[in-house]
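Dear colleague,

Following up on Tuesday's group meeting, I ran the structure prediction for the three-component complex that the binding team flagged. I've pasted the input sequences exactly as they went in, so you can double-check that nothing got truncated or mislabelled along the way. The structure tokens for the whole assembly follow below. Feel free to forward this to whoever is handling the docking comparison.

Inputs:
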Amino acid sequence: MEEKILEVNDLSVSFSGGVQAVSDVSFDLRRGEAFALVGESGCGKSTTARAILRLIRSPGRITGGQVRFEGRDLLELSSKEMSQVRGREIGMIFQNPLDSLNPVYTIGGQVTEGLVVDRMEKREAWRLAADMFRDVKIPDAEKRMKSYPHEISGGMRQRVMIGMMLCRHPKLLIADEPTTALDVTIQAGIIELMNDLRRKYDTAVLMITHDFGIVADMADRVGVMYAGKLVELGDVYTIFDRPLHPYTRMLMKALPVITKKEGRLATIPGTVPDLSKPVKGCRFADRCPDACGICRGAAPALTECQPGHLCACHKEKGGGAHV
Amino acid sequence: MKWKKSKLRQVVKKPLFFIGFFMMLVVVLAAVFAPQLAPHGFADQALNMKLAPPCAQFPLGTDRYGRCILSRILFGSRIALKVGLVAVVIETVIGVTLGILAGYYGKKTDRVIMFVTDMIWSIPPIILAMAIVLLLGPSAENVAISVALVTWAQFTKIVRAKVQSIKSLSYIEAAKVYGESDLQIILRYILPNLTSTIVILASLALPSAILSTTSMGFLGLGAQEPLPDWGMILSNGIQFIKKAPWVTFWPGLAIVWTVLGFNLAAEGLKELLDPRMKV
Amino acid sequence: MSETLLCIEHLKKYFPLKSGLKKNAAFVRAVDDVTLDIHAGETLGLVGESGSGKTTLAKMILGLMEPTEGTITLDGMDIHDRGRRKELSHCVGAVFQDPASSLNPRATVYRSLERPLELNGCSKGDARDLIYETAEKVNLGRELLERFPYELSGGQQQRVSIARAILLKPKLLVLDEPTSALDVSVQAQTLNELLDLQQKFGLTYLFITHNLSVVRYMSDRICVMYGGKVMELGEAEEIYGHYRHPYTLSLLSSVPPLHPSQRERKKVLLTGDMPSLIGELTGCRFASRCPFAQESCRTEEPPFRDLGEGHRVACSLAETLDFPNR
């Protein structure tokens, strides 16, 4: 088995009013692997990503669990040690790159700043950054580095962010919906770029997305989240070909992949449960067509149904009422 | 409503808001019950007690005509609040109307209104206000008018920006599609969504309006003798500041108390209605 | 072919650029000479990236913006005839992208629905009946009517918007990215409801989106816009199966795959940015990014030609290009 660089164990995050945004989420990432965390809005996927880097804003709080990165528990580090990890060992890019770039500095200046902090000589840093700009396929790299963030397009900004993060060769890159705000043609370019660079630098990627298309395009393994819980986890082919959890199955059928002449899309009746109240039993039970007594009584644990394929459902093999 | 309750709880946790609210309440009660609370009339002179220090008969002392400082401050609060309120009402009406017109119609209307606004903005307010009062003649009413005429510009700028952002929202476009007229859109859709902004702006403008009116009083442009304008009491006492410091100390304290109290209360109100608003 | 409901002819919208003291020195050609018909009872899907002019076109159809040149006629009436504004407000309905900002936050759902009827001279009682009837049509529970918008979920808010749009029984419904802000499962439900409404009441939709899977599911015909111009127009299946424009090709090949096995498909990635739409423009708008562009493409504007059966394309090389058709 390949080396694990990130292990998230039973991570829980709660917000004010007792909202359990993330509860007992566990997964791991191997070196150089692309892992996608997919789910609908409010399922806790972004919160999980932020919790890994300890970027949860008050009144949110990590209430339990471990985040082991290369053997260290990130939740135990001092805030000074943590800021060493951020950017240098784990990079993160967000949905809106304009918010992540400082408008009063040139993009070249911002990219080299991190390197200069790492005691690199300024000219050397600039050269390295220019190389990186070419790597992320920004035309006229040298000239572009002297531009300000507002002078370049959204797609270019996201490329700058990716370049900026990869400059310091992080072992893990967390990408929180990096292409949601972009047009499809731009999105396709960014995904291709991320795939190329991942192979080149052997960087693991944790991709947060709501789009199964992006999952299909770049993930090696997938975790499906629903209402703060990880409900299914497995290899990307397995998830697409043989999804086990009813939520995953229904979500796949709701994707508009047909024409109206061919039929209607499947829908998922009901709504997500209120996470400010404790939920008894499976969180999907109220919307699940196969739910029965046991589903409402006890929460199913995420258990291995087939090698490498985990599912949290009582109806699946090995899915017993453990929790 | 549920969210309001939880917000109220957040504000309740802020002690400064409570202190401010308490201070404000004291001033309002003083103004309302001045005739009952004051030991003397504000113009009553005790000619044998000129510049008397605080004593049983005059708890805060007397001024150079032997008038009770406490009574003058109590009655003076009426002038301060009345002039401040009138000024705020006038500036709100002018500022909000122009702000809505500029923000909603844009183009030429906006350019003209913003030109006038920037002009007003660029003249030192107290000098402009003085010029206006000198033109109209010194009196409490004219002070209110002049303060309003120099301060509406801040309303215009903020309301205009807010209207511009509301204007681009889909419900305004939808309303136009199903046939609302411009006037209806302003009255039914834009104005109701501006209420919290206007309330916050007005509540923040009130203490500064009170401060401006007392400054005008200090310069002798406000309510005329024997009316007890706080600013005037203060300026009349300055020449005796060594001999009789109470004549300046107490009205000064009243001004600080009032402005601080109203400011703290306004900040609390802002927290309650729109914590992210920048003024 | 069914009759034409909306007829757009040589429509242009140029925005003047502010350039210091010089007056109207330059224009942004947001929509540049668009000619398009929408047939009664059909769904016309309008796709394009940001900056393609699709939203500007929609705003002109809704009467929210005056065209610089050209006309839009609905059932023979000029949309921009000010005298008939009232009459037209019955005829066109709109649903916008962001469900949260589509409803007046200070009004209850009922009030939001009542107002358009009130404006059109409907009595309180009639309005009540019609609101209940329409709420039922869009599966909006009666208990939701007395709530405020912030008390509803995104899907419910969008259903209120749809209800408001169809209250006056419009002939044309302009749907501007109605499901872009919704989750997949809510999107599916909303799209299905829109299809049911169309079937039951014979509505005509102009469906604007950047999501190519959604537009394929919904549309009878598809119109592809780029740089303020129509690039390709035709039956939905024709566009997906036999597209003839290089831009359509790159757009479709950019759509993320449905299955990881399609990961290695050939993508036609666009390089560079959208061209500037300012000033005098010559040649094909797409030429600067087109992988097949020839010298003539940069100098001569390609005509919008009919290739038969209503499949129209603005590319002079359309017949000669060999695409990998899906």
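The longest helix of chain B spans residues 69-105.

Cheers,
M.
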